[in-house]
């Protein structure tokens, strides 16, 4: 049995076990779904609980940028640079991207000149920074951005924010998330080969793969694609897949849990539903085994009670759901494996 988890206290506010993870899950889900104000709300709450969580910090920066809150993005990126969070050059480029949006060309010039003085610019990025410095000097001289320079500025922003999808799985997860976030509003067909390569790569992260599959479905891609996750492989046609929240197995488990707990224990049901959706988001588009919903409902009942610091009685759960202990144990192993890598510290 797991030890009872302590309730966290922050500034006299109580946070129950698992609260931070739930906030991160909700924040990242809303970021992926382009609900940036909601993503910010959840991630800011998570940041109160864990101010140094890199995943939360990067999620907040991306959300601020997409929501047009560039001052907040600048302040947070500055703080991350001061704390040495993330790859230094990557963070500097992110910071410069924000400065372009704010038209703070003098600051761009000062930053890049300092990088040159410190010999801190990698050889392969030398020309890129040189071009950026030249452009910023011209913009600073003009003070304002005239209509005929806007296309140049937009091109510069694109170059600074759109990263190469080639060998995506070899980039760190922060870069992967930035790339995927950047292509969500674009026609992804030019990137199909790179996306297919990532989906079939055992090193690709399951969370990123689900986002990419959702994009392929949304844009009605109808070619066969191989997906690998959790030592499983499947060939799918994205257009024909059910939506992430419409997976038949997940809906069956959810319906059964509701029939048992909706009136008896709605709080437990809410936590079970959140974990269920998280597990099937990560495993999408695979059907998980054993498939019967009553086994999953029983296992979720058991593990969520543990997460809430309760002492689940396996005998009562077995009787309640008519599920065998060994089958419940098999599902518990899967849940713990998926939960362990759901949202790693980036």
TrEMBL record:
Keywords: TPR repeat
PROSITE patterns linked to this entry: TPR
TPR repeat ranges per the UniProt record: 20-53
Pfam families on file: TPR_19 (PF14559)
Keyword Signal listed: no
InterPro entries per UniProt: TPR-like_helical_dom_sf, TPR_rpt
Protein name: Tetratricopeptide repeat protein
Species of provenance: Neobacillus thermocopriae
Organism ancestry: Bacteria, Bacillati, Bacillota, Bacilli, Bacillales
